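input
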Amino acid sequence: MAVAERVASRVQVTKLQLQAEDAEARLRQAYESLGQHLYAAHATHSPETAKVDDSLPLCEDICAEQRALQEIRDRLASRYDDVLILPLIHLQEDLQAGGGTIERVTIVPSAQADGKPLSEVALPESVRIVLVRRNDSLLFPSDQMVLRAGDQVTVIGNRSALPGAIQSLLA
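output
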């Protein structure tokens, strides 16, 4: 049952994320409409006769969209505990209980791993690269993946073996 509950939570979070994206798009559209309205009002009237009151409905729409977006963001934040924080806490507990740890290192231009495929990076058996963050992308490693300077590499493994693995990545 726990798996079904986690899947349902993730589905709810995904729906909330889509609702937030829709609300953000509507908010951008409302701002654009207000800008167009104010520009048209300014272009067709002299500053003395321009009516600001005509743009009040658009301002009210913007306020309503901002409130709706904030409500969605608040609901989304409350769901992150179930979907993200709790699994990470469980991972941390499992690692500690098993003598493991997790680290993130950034590949520097002079590093031995810079420009090498993962298959050529010498790591102890008890250490694995589990994630590579390149710019704004998350990449799941394969043997053919070539590490680049600036990559943020997440390494998981035995607490005793990890310092040597990090040294071999950065040397």
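quick obs: The chain has a mean pLDDT of 85.
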